[in-house]
Amino acid sequence: MKVLVIGGGGREHAICWKLAQSPKVKELYCAPGNAGIAEIARCVDIGVMDFEKMTEFAKKEAFDLVVVGPDDPLAAGLVDALEAAGLRTFGPRKSAAILEGSKAFSKDLMKKYGIPTAAYETFDTPEAALEYLETAPVPVVLKADGLALGKGVLICNTREEAREGVKTLMLDKQFGSAGDRIVVEEFMTGREVSVLSFVDGKTIRIMTSAQDHKRAKDGDQGLNTGGMGTFSPSPFYTPEVDQFCREHIYQPTVDAMAAEGREFKGIIFFGLMLTADGPKVLEYNARFGDPETQVVLPRMKNDIVDVFEACVDGTLDQVELDFEDNAAVCVVLASAGYPEHYEKGYRIEGLEKFKDQDGYYVFHAGSKFDAEGNIVTNGGRVLGVTAKGKDLEEARANAYKAAEWVEFGNKYMRGDIGKAIDELIG
């Protein structure tokens, strides 16, 4: 098969890495890709939002399968454009990607179909939001309705912070038009867990659990980021939690989308909060999570092509997912200053140390080649260093060991990815 992956981050590198292992894939392309992806796929310089050029290229090259990675092109309808050009495409159509594209839509869907989530209100004007916040219980959570690179969520501990949050989202437009409408949500407490799933419109297959670390600094301090590291599986995701979620969250979400005439094919990422009242949905994503993908796919035994095709063809009921009985931890190596201001263009050293190391992986998120052909930093999150181990404790030690193999100017990482699990394990 000839396969095209659309995107250029750590998620897409992990997807390309998994596709490259399939005996069914003979030619692998990625648009636009990055310096790491270039080692395993032919990178093509086409932006993910350039639908016309992307569709034209994909049609001309006659790809057997196209996989769309990022949220923006999914929400804007790239899958629809590719399918209209006759290309078999993995990912939700625009009508289904709204599950992530609009927080208000997803909250309304959960309310309508009785899917457990936090109580909420939706506001189109800052005046109405501010009036509501005068009497709303605090802490409170403010969410930009639209896509905001995983950063449009503000946890406000006081009324003053909540007023500032409304200003940030709706008046200062920190996340652009994503903040034209906001969702004000009750603050839930508990353990967060991420669960990725494959969906073919009617059947859902659950992958192994994971847990992300969103904040920039140790101890979950600092600003929200796209993710500073992950581990899998989550020790808090018990068989009892899994059973509850399958009955009350996972399948009901797929059925609700179908009932709304928005058949969902692709990935649903469930962001869950394990509250004292049971699991509840924090958010949905309509694609692989980043960096969750970098700990989930290395543990997956299946040929990913089989799963992608089953989702496209509506035959996922014939597929059983199989995961290794071990653990994986990913530590993100970022540019100091991320997610605000940071410098790019630093040469990355030590990548060759991953070449023949079984169970150690480096996924590129923000890298490129400079004029001399060196790999240099090209983003806030630069690399995801992933390692496996027999359990979470060993995987964590391995990941931090491997993180030291790599050097670049202004390298920054959290030192406590998965640290809470050490305490749990004792």
TrEMBL record:
GO biological process terms held by the UniProt record: 'de novo' IMP biosynthetic process; purine nucleobase biosynthetic process
The cofactor(s) it depends on are: Mn(2+); Mg(2+)
**Catalyzes what?**
5-phospho-beta-D-ribosylamine + glycine + ATP = N(1)-(5-phospho-beta-D-ribosyl)glycinamide + ADP + phosphate + H(+)
Q: Give the matching Gene3D superfamilies.
A: 3.40.50.20, ATP-grasp fold, A domain, ATP-grasp fold, B domain, Phosphoribosylglycinamide synthetase, C-terminal domain
Enzyme class per UniProt: ligase
The protein's GO terms of the molecular function aspect are: ATP binding; metal ion binding; phosphoribosylamine-glycine ligase activity
Named in its record, the pathway it takes part in is:
Purine metabolism; IMP biosynthesis via de novo pathway; N(1)-(5-phospho-D-ribosyl)glycinamide from 5-phospho-alpha-D-ribose 1-diphosphate: step 2/2
InterPro entries linked:
ATP-grasp, ATP_grasp_subdomain_1, PreATP-grasp_dom_sf, PRibGlycinamid_synth_ATP-grasp, PRibGlycinamide_synth, PRibGlycinamide_synth_C-dom, PRibGlycinamide_synth_C_sf, PRibGlycinamide_synth_CS
Write the Enzyme Commission number(s) for this entry: 6.3.4.13
Please list the residue ranges that the record marks as compositionally biased, kind Basic and acidic residues.
211-220
Q: In the UniProt record, does the keyword Cytoplasm occur?
A: no
What are the boundaries of the region Disordered?
210-229
> Domain named ATP-grasp: which ranges?
107-313
Which keywords annotate this record?
ATP-binding, Ligase, Manganese, Metal-binding, Nucleotide-binding, Purine biosynthesis
Indicate the family of this protein: Belongs to the GARS family.
The UniProt entry, under HAMAP family, shows: GARS (MF_00138)
**What protein does this entry describe?**
Phosphoribosylamine--glycine ligase
State the organism named in the record. [Clostridium] asparagiforme DSM 15981
